[in-house]
Amino acid sequence: MPPTITLIATRYRPEIEAEPTTQPYEVPYRKDWVVLDALNYVKDRLDGSLTFRWSCRMGVCGSCGMMVNGTPRLTCGAFLSEFFPGPVRVEPLQHFPIIRDLVVDISDFLRKLSHVKPWLIRKEERPLAEGEYRQTPEQLDAYKQFSMCINCLLCYAACPIYGLEPGFVGPAAIALAQRYNRDSRDEAAQERMRILSGSASDGIWQCTFVGECSRVCPKDVDPARAIQQYKLSGTLDALRSLLLPWGTS
Amino acid sequence: MDRYTCDVLVVGGGGAGLRAAIAVAETRPDIRIAVISKVYPMRSHTVSAEGGAAAVIKSGDSVDAHAYDTISGGDWLSDQNAVEAFVREAPEEMLRLEHWGCPWSRDPDGRIAVRAFGGMKVERTWFAADKTGFHLLHALFQTSLKYEGIRRFDEWFVTKLLVDDGRCQGVVGLELATGRILAITARAVILCTGGCGRVFPFTTNAAIKTGDGMALAYRAGAPLKDMEFVQYHPTGLPFTGILITEAARAEGGWLLNKDGYRYLQDYDLGKPQPRPILRSMELGPRDRLSQVFVKEMERGRTLVGPYGHYVHLDIRHLGADLIDRKLPFVRELCLRYENIDPVKELIPVRPVVHYMMGGIHTDVHGATPLPGLFAAGEAACVSINGANRLGSNSLPELLVFGARAGQAAATYAAGQNEPGPAVRAQAEDEARRLEQDYLCRTTGTERLADLRVEMHKTMEEHAGIYRAEASLHQAAETLRKLQDRFRDVALDDRSHTFNTQLIAALELACMLDVAETIVSAALERRESRGAHQRTDCPQRDDAKFLAHSLIFRSADGLPRVELLPVTITRWPPGQRVYGR
Asked: B396-430 b/e with 16+ CB inside 10 Å = b?
């Protein structure tokens, strides 16, 4: 008898049930299978109505994040062997509204992302004919880590503040704001700082640097560091405006 | 039924789609633009491109040299006017991406760095470590957010093109979250829906790459072009098909057979040197390297694992420092998905389906023969890639021709009237079809997964790296039967909320149509050229086949193939020579 493992998946069909329930599925246990392979086995062979997102299966599209045994994970990178003999609990990412089964509504993040202006802003655009903006490898290193965010939102599911204070702009959006703030080609750090210290800062001062966001990040973006940097410069700005109310420039 | 009206509608939110949308916004800031995509734009498959993007920027290089590499790499099936436009405009497009924040890797003086790539005679491949597509897509997506005129329909699936009065006037879209069906009318539509690697079992392509846009255009009467040219990438991980970038070889990686021997030297690809030589050995073109793998397998010199034959990619001699600096994703993928560390161990690899040279037939402005319908990116065939695409040409292609299609569509839209009432009636028919054929279906005995697996099997066996007449006929017959069986598919999900089984069924219908065009074009092309190798017709035949295949859908649903001569400007057909 080939070995099997039990997946316990969250089910939620808003048309027929008021609250999420769970459903167990017994799937083959294979050492080279990840949780996503097991979900696809269920969908192909056992229950075509089980609903989840996935695409690249190589940890870069950011679609397949779910709670696996209580921890936010990319299911394409979570081997069944980690959980053998099981069972494996698969739930939708927490802190987000559930649309159906394992699919959550991420529109709140998309709004927040736009809000922090994650694009390169220059006072004056240089014509293309003049070539590239020079940027040394060291200058690239100053923001590179924050540019690795794949928007998988595991950090939001891990963040205790976002769970309590949905207005909090959140780890990934702050990391992406910092990604541009620290880019030597960008000239809008102050503008983004104003945005971040407006209503979007709800909750940010409650962040206690537990670092849950950085711990679950599959790309080592370290959003906690971005938040720390933000708070530090935010504090300096506040001090500056206190000490130099006429401005610094 | 509900209707949404815009001026230019872009289908697909990957690199080509976003570049096109921004081009529309910059050409005509006053018009209404919409981007509809079955996934959030940053999930699109552009995100998986690894190695780089070619464009002439360094002294000592020239656009003619880039053109020649592209044309010879494509075995002279590229349209040379399109290639000339491509190499000329690629550097500006890539610089624009730099100005939009793309974190290109740099030389110590702060200028753009370039690396070697397969089939390129000069180092001209820009890169962002080995996550070039990821950075390019996110830079485009984040930049697109500043254009408030671009309305997005995220997680909407397009089921049909609306064609009336001989022109494309919009689409029918299905919202995944709610099941709502909407007529989205437009004065021009641009298809940027990517390729169809999922027609095959072993592929680097993401789950979403099911040829939807190709099928939509084909059903609406626009021809597909050169669909027989399917690129196998020589280095995918067995089982998952995860891509190990060509950059691994460009940085000096070796391909080894079961005896640890650099077997490429036995196949007229040059002699092994300790350092990588451009257009030689491991830096030969993808089609040749994938074909050589099969020859090596036939000689019994490959290894065998649970997922079939494979060889080894060896990058151990590059050292941990270079690997972490220039190939960090390779190491991450190997560690995370194969549980091996390429700093110390050999990487098992095999050829896997990677890219469609063929696609929706367009001119150099991205216009298809169906007025009002444009296409760009992998979904389209302009054609710059001919019979074999060179690594690092697809990213600049989607920028150059995404931008061109956007500009052309914006200009075209200005001269058109609002879509008429006939379009609305068509949309209502389509909504009824979706309800009756899918959501209300209670009969049916065929499992979606069974049909998909059988399609995979027949495509791999009969329409893979090597093909022959009898076997292709068999594939055509199997696909016909699968089309029949699809009409009896069983669906057990009747929900209107995020019905992924419905989407999977619609995708399979697209893949079956597209698979038929691949097989029929492969049958008609009785020669061997680039990625299309016929064991029964092993020679290139310029007298008959220096021509594109145009594949039309006939009234009975079967593909019909016509030939269209290749445009030659300055480079007469010659022999492809590598390693000499």
From this structure: bbbbbbbbbbbbbbbebbeeeeebeeebbebbeeb
